[in-house]
Amino acid sequence: MIRGRVVGRYWATKKIEHIPSGAFLEVESHGGGRMIAFDVLGCGEGEDVLIVTGSTAASWLGGGKIPIDALIIGSLDETTKSKSK
Amino acid sequence: MIRGRVVGRYWATKKIEHIPSGAFLEVESHGGGRMIAFDVLGCGEGEDVLIVTGSTAASWLGGGKIPIDALIIGSLDETTKSKSK
Amino acid sequence: MIRGRVVGRYWATKKIEHIPSGAFLEVESHGGGRMIAFDVLGCGEGEDVLIVTGSTAASWLGGGKIPIDALIIGSLDETTKSKSK
Amino acid sequence: MIRGRVVGRYWATKKIEHIPSGAFLEVESHGGGRMIAFDVLGCGEGEDVLIVTGSTAASWLGGGKIPIDALIIGSLDETTKSKSK
Amino acid sequence: MIRGRVVGRYWATKKIEHIPSGAFLEVESHGGGRMIAFDVLGCGEGEDVLIVTGSTAASWLGGGKIPIDALIIGSLDETTKSKSK
């Protein structure tokens, strides 16, 4: 999984079918890169989250034709301790 | 998902079977890299899009033998706000 | 598989469903990057581990809706020899 | 998909089972990296090709035990136009 | 597929279930990075190999709960010719 911080949100009126209810959040990963992750937990800017990528994201959302490859699976507790860089 | 901007289009007369109807668009990602994504929405150059990659792209297109691993799932609204770099 | 060393642990009280029992460990890979891997072996900080990523991780855990894409599959023996950089 | 140019070919007499008929071509991607892609179209050195990666490549070839994760799906037309870097 | 050279071997006494018979070999890829690939061909140090990654590796080994995401599919012939960097 990737650890990152929510930094923005995107909207797409022109889109393909089978996108479930939720938000497209932009997340900056620990390493500095940015990606768009799908969120069903109601996360907000500044929140530290865990993201799962690949077909696993679509499977959790129901699989089949769901076109999502990055999903926020949790929000990190503030009490989390780690020898972070 | 990857956020990027459409910068070109490719054609392939010599190709394998089971490629669906659509366009091969070149997209420059936010991070600077380039990839070829399949488009069924009719996106054009300069448009900001969201791309899903991996087997999820083929699944949305019908799965099975469809040889596509990158699909444009939406075009970003101009009103989208984000603390972009 | 990726070889890495456990450097921390994360907790997520706010999370989606279908996350199995286990720990979210932060691992620093041989190349220097960091990722979060799911652990069911009870690994601790400083331990050198092997990590499998992608849908293979979810499949081992039972597949279906399990939202995990990185799993520690083993802890490297201290007697392991390699021409490491 | 990845866009690249064929730069070489490899043979493997010692190999596992279930590798289909075709060639292992070395391709230099637009970004400069190199990979080995499986080819069933008879592409040659200097040809610009599109490559699909991951389980999608194996699925097109028949799925199951086929151990191929990169497949050339087409050869780019010379008339292709793009704002290439 | 990735082309690389075998540079070491790892053992893991403490491991999860469903790991098949074979060896965990460390491989240095053409680009310089290192990864651990599963080997059933009996490859040794210094051998140039082709590696398939992702769920395709597990599928060849039988699929289901097999937690392997990188598999050596062949050893490159010495007579192989390529415009290598």
Automatic annotation (TrEMBL), chains A, B, C, D, E:
<dbReference type="Pfam" id="PF03319">
    <property type="entry name" value="EutN_CcmL"/>
</dbReference>
<keyword id="KW-1283">Bacterial microcompartment</keyword>
<protein>
    <submittedName>
        <fullName>EutN/CcmL family microcompartment protein</fullName>
    </submittedName>
</protein>
<dbReference type="InterPro" id="IPR036677">
    <property type="entry name" value="EutN_CcmL_sf"/>
</dbReference>
<dbReference type="InterPro" id="IPR004992">
    <property type="entry name" value="EutN_CcmL"/>
</dbReference>
